Structures are given as C-alpha cells and as structure tokens.
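User: Can you predict the 3D structure for this chain?
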Amino acid sequence: MSHARAAAFELVPALRRIEDELAIYEDLLRRWQSKINLVAPNTIDAVWVRHFADSGQVLEAAPEARVWADVGSGAGFPGLVTALLLKDRPGAKVHLIESDQRKAAFLRAVSRETRAPAEVHAERIEKALPSLVGEVEAISARALAPLARLVDMAREPLDKGAIAVFLKGEEWLDELTAAEPLSSFRFKTIPSRTHPRARLIVVNSPSEADFDRTD
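Assistant: Here is the predicted structure, written as structure tokens:
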C-alpha cells in the first residue's frame, strides 16, 4: 500500500472498504486530467488525501442520509466519494449536479466503472435542484461558492428538512459570519481532518436536530 493511501485511510478509515473503487477513480482521473482540467494540477499527486479523504468526511457529518444532491460536482468531490461510501446501502443515491458537459461525462464514466449509486444531472443547479426537493435528504458542495450563496441555493430543500454539509477552507469563519445573520437556519462547524484551518459547515432547519456552532 502506498504512503498516500495509508494516510487517507488513517484520516478516514471508512475509505478502506472502497479502496478498489477509489483506485479505479484515481486511474480515470489521471487519464481524463490530460484532456480536461478536472482538479488543480498540483493536487493530482495528492489525490488520496487532498480529494478522497477530504470528501470522505462528508457522509460522517450526516450518516443517516441516503439520498444526496451534490451541487457543482466538478470531478466528483465530495459527491462521488459519498456515493461510493453508500454503495451497499439499500435505496442510496447521490445526484451529481454539474453543468459542464465534459465534467458530466467524466462523472458518468467513473460512476459506470465503479458502479456507484449516482445519477448525473448535466444542467445548472437552479434547474436541477428544485426538481429534487422532497427526495434529497442531504446536500453537499466543495469549493463552489461563498457559504451565504450555498445556503440560498439550498434554501428550499433545507426548508423541507434536508441537511447540508459544505466543505470550506481557511476563510470559513468570515463566510460563516456573513451567512448567519442572513439565514434562519442553524449552523454547526466540524474541524476538517485534512486541513487544520478548514471546516465542514453543517446547516439545517431549526425544526430539525439542534445544531450550534462548535468552534
């Protein structure tokens, strides 16, 4: 086992059971990266920690959710990793929303080769997400938009009882400070395992579980 894989498994042990699928994912990512820009070039060699382990944290923040919508999926982080972790759970599905047709084709290729329970929507978020309200139990996003904008995008499913998990980098506190006064939702922050200054921001309706800021 490579050092990179071992490091990823230490950070997120659940990834061990989908190691074979992630190896297929990595191979496809490297091959497609030469044709289209899926991830920052300087992160491709750190895919196991930077992308797989980082994404693997998301499901643990909402472990009961079986049906997800991942908005702005890009190369599939975190949504496709979530789908692989849910692979053996009955009724599980992750809707991957990505308007870039080439990236959507990549997501379909990985889903097909790994048999991930994922459905790709090659359209804009504002068109795809409303059609999933009432079906999705959780929403995820990574490196897509400021937190206030993400909460606004997810407002309707959140109002219907969904939970949102957003991966945020070093500017998370500024984004949270800007978003909280504009929202009636509750926020919880979880320290990232892959970056000491990053956080997972969990958002839900006050009528659901009682969430408060933990940092």
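DSSP finds nine helices and seven strands in the chain. The two ends are 35 Å apart (CA to CA).
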